[in-house]
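Hi W., the nicotinamide-adenine-dinucleotide complex you wanted:
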Amino acid sequence: MSTSALRFEIVDGNIGLITFDQPNSRANTLNQAVLGEFEQVLSEIEKRTDLQGLILRSGKPGMFVAGADLKELGSAEHDPEQAKKMVQRGLRILERIESLPYPTVAAIEGSCMGGGLELALAFDHRVASTHPKTELGLPETKIGLIPGWGGTQRLPRVIGPANAVEMIASGDAVPAAKAAALGLVFDAVPSERLLEEAKRVLQMSRETGAWREARRQKQQPVGLTEDQHAFTFAVAKGAVLAKTKGQLPAPMAAVEVVEKSCNLPLQEGLKIETEAFARLVGSEISRNLIAVFFMNQRLQKDTGVSNPEIKPQEIRRVGVLGAGIMGSGIAGAFIRRGIPCSMLDVNDAALAKGVAAIQKLLQGRVEAGRMKPEEAVAALGNLCTTLSLAAMSDRDLVIEAVVENEAVKVETFQKLQQHLPADRIIASNTSTISITRMAKAVNNPERFAGMHFFNPVDRMPLVEVIRGEKTSDETTATLVALAKKIGKTPIVVKDCPGFLVNRILFPYINEALVLLEEGASPRAIDKAATTFGMPMGPITLNDVVGNDTALYAGKVVNTAFADRAATSRILEELVKEGRLGQKSGAGFYSYAKDPKRGTDDPAFEAILARCRKQQRDISAEEITDRLFLPMLLEATRCLAEGIVRDPSDIEMGLILGIGFPAWRGGILHWARSVGVEEILRRLKKYEHLGPRFHPTDALRQLGTMKLGS
Ligand code: NAD
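Structure:
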């Protein structure tokens, strides 16, 4: 097998064809070794006098170039001078491509991301295949960087600054058809015609001289008028600020680079890009985001069990019991991925409600352009509904999502078993009930586990696969494989109250309520959490989840961990008054005027006044410490108890399950970067509040612990 990533050949007599196919790898990445190969191939090409054109393509179906090598970038120190050198090597290669005395075309099939798109942008023309995996994007801002190989320069010159800034600041990729509409690629054709199309464009360009014009356009300023310039970047900056709340420097840096450089010649613009890029490489945020990327990759590869011999069972048909919020969401997730699903409930009205919810979800996806109408129809064809457990007899797996009541669930399992062959798997979506305990009621506890989806199922990527004491490796591996098949990220968790995410979330929710009782306002608490980087504060989160649900789940976790749980009567008082949160129009906030964000509500103030124990001013710093330190301590307890199989599962569980800011690298990582000594110092301040602020041994060891595998 060849050890080189690039193959060069002459086709049709005078066209140079470079095929990029990195050996022993599913992806093509632009690491230092590959850059060296590009330099060599270019030297060979530059010497030749017989060439009339150059085409670059990938040898891997569905994969053009994934981008720069993140292992190299993630391990880069924060050394701007070193970063500049790294960048200049790549820039020089692109410049050499742009100086060849004949037209060039990049034939793109599959992911064309980051450095891959920057490379393609150095070609005079790009053509794409309509392969479903073809997508083009500059995702650098998602890992705390900006494009460094000319992406902030050539993209605005090719598709215009407004579109370019949107693509770069969001980091989102576009499919082939959209790329063609934007003018990013010349056109999009079926895979089997891609090479022919590249040759056709090459010939046309040679005949018309279009390649000279394409090059000229990329060298020159884009030429925005003063008004256009001011408008474009005011809009772009506003959009970035709204999204990042000023917490992530990279998207704004990208906008500013394009703003400063788009009206300058390419060479001057590239210098501005390089300076800005070098400031971000190796920065803490960038390294954290890259570390999270790798933690996510680990999960994607993880089979969920340590024994490599274990093979997941094939799941061809599933059943879902309960057509409520979760049952319909779970059924929707299966049918969207082509897995036939039978959904059961106790009466027609409940089933109709569940089906309507699924239809609404599919319709929403069609309207957002994320699904074709015929795909939505095909998905619905995979759904059937039933009132009879007998209809579950041909299912490989049945997921229970009926009401959160142990007696009802256990009775359901017992009745289900009368119809379900013994070799099938039963999983429960319970949020709080012990899997080990419920397993005692089933005939085959080794084929019983928790499969805890998060609400809304359509948007939340995380699934906790919960192993009861007797759950087998095969059952675990099967649920992990199935969760991945429907696009979710599974984490295997040992059975314990609250499992992983709710167990760590509740100390934080509890503390928010205690802070209210001590005098903090709901807004001040939410603000401290969002300033830290959470997508919403704990008070709003209660209103969104439902205060009745939060009260119930909280009781289970707080009873189990009574030694350290801080309790409050506020949730109980709210539920008593029917203030269940967003769903009832009022909770901590009122949702009458603003159904999403809510407004401050004097009626809640009256309830709070009854519950308040103190009325003191509490600083934002204290609120932040008090919210996140108990959360951290619970995370260290989960670590010590082996609730997950790898410390990075705790980080990813919180990032995916509750939106813990990825740019902090995870909660354990955050503590490490603050410093264990400093965390201990902060805990000392709150020692008098009780065991929930007392350090754990695992926290003391955190400084030296290996946090990822
Ligand atoms: P829900 O009240 O919306 O739906 C429950 C459905 O189960 C109803 O349609 C009801 O008619 C049906 N049902 C009741 N008894 C039944 C029986 N014996 N057989 C068949 N169907 C029956 O509740 P939900 O929010 O969808 O919660 C379902 C499960 O998912 C619970 O265990 C809950 O703890 C868990 N869960 C909920 C959330 C959430 O945020 N809502 C998140 C994760 C897990």
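The chain has a mean pLDDT of 96.

W.
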